[in-house]
């Protein structure tokens, strides 16, 4: 389908994440996925509101004339719960003013996530401009709509009591805003079921699985690469991502396999603490931390025997698992409803209970049996994802 748009049929995309996951220039999977999608949705004229730290990351990535960036300053580089709230409210005020002033340039408002810093300004701008907004829902935080239930889910992610409570209240408010959205796009069926249980009109829920640009990353494929690492982790370095479990299992496995070597790739607010724990436990020669690597991570991934994801977080899709499968690296991950929906069909993915002993046994078993067939993950290509997204948006405009 090709659509010729009038000038005022642009799309205002609110992809803010003003606090950078509590660490400057560290993006979550939702931001990365949204960035990839909009770069290929060239039929649309996008006006993007985002803080300068995201602007610095993205401005040199995309050359399309359809993308117009509107960076906004933020006050704090290192933050806590209180500064998050203050900064989020201040950014919202700025974005609402900008959204009102450029109201003649767009006809649809797109909240890139259900984070309060995205969905709240989207709703406000929609109210004052009387233009529809859509929401992208990425994470499985809702078992039900009660604040206490949401709070318990955040606590299971190993967040603090205060942080969990504040985030639960904001998440509950996000449900109200989703109920007013023209469309709620979910990245898997399970998330759509969650929203329906929370009272969101099922007619507004549209499914669009996430995707990876396989054509791009296949240029990094090296069939002659040599294995160097036993385990590989890629992701944000946060407490709820299971980094402590990785340290614990490496410490146990080295008693049977003294040469075990693990690489941890990523950045986040938990990075320095993880480094300290590794040093204190004398595991420096067994665990290497590289920091954020960008596309260089594909080399390390292919050099690894197993990709490990013992996450406690309420995940939304699992793009890093998909990358591992593309490069024919078997996966060991703690099971959750979304991973079951997406990855249980692949023999090279082992979804297990949140248990260190089971994690250890599964890893040792895979290290002893390294033969596995390359799975077909083409259904989750970025091109297919973009086509579905384009159809959803086109039906609204």
Description:
- This protein is of the alpha/beta class and 397 residues long.
- It has 15 helices and 13 strands.
- A seven-stranded parallel beta sheet has the order 3-2-1-4-5-6-7, with helices on both faces.
- Helix 13 links the parallel strand 12 and strand 13.
- Helix 1 (29-40) crosses helix 15, helix 3 runs parallel beside helix 4 and helix 4 runs parallel beside helix 6.
- Mean pLDDT is 87; it is low at 1-7 and 18-22.
Ends: how far apart?
A: 14 Å
Count up the helices: 15
Structural class: alpha/beta
* Average pLDDT level: 87
List unreliable stretches of 5+ residues.
1-7, 18-22
Number of strands: 13
Q: Which H/E pattern describes the elements?
A: EHEHEHEHEHHEHEHEHEHEHEHEHEHH
The fraction of residues in strands falls at 15-25%
Instruction: Report the sheet with the most strands, covering strand number, pairing sense and barrel closure.
Output: 7 strands, parallel
Approximate helicity band: 40-55%
For the CA atoms, what is the radius of gyration?
Answer: 21 Å
- Bulk shape: globular
Strand order of the largest sheet: 3-2-1-4-5-6-7
